[in-house]
Amino acid sequence: MTEEESFRIKIEGPSFNEKGTSLNELLKVYSAIDGLFESTHSNIAGYEKYTKINRNPYQIIINEAKIGSWDSYLKILIAVSPALFNQGLTPKDYLETIFVTYEFLNSIFTLRKKGEKYRLNVNGSGNRIEIIKENNVTNIYNAPVTINLIANAQKSLPDYREIADILKSGNMTSLNISSNSSKSIKLTSEDANLFDLVESRSSEIKIVYGEIYRFNKRTRTGKIHISEAEGIAPGKYTFSVKKDNQIDIILSMLKNEGTFSVLEIFIEDPITGKQILDSLEIVDL
Question: What is the superkingdom listed in this entry's lineage (predicted)?
Answer without folding.
Answer: Bacteria
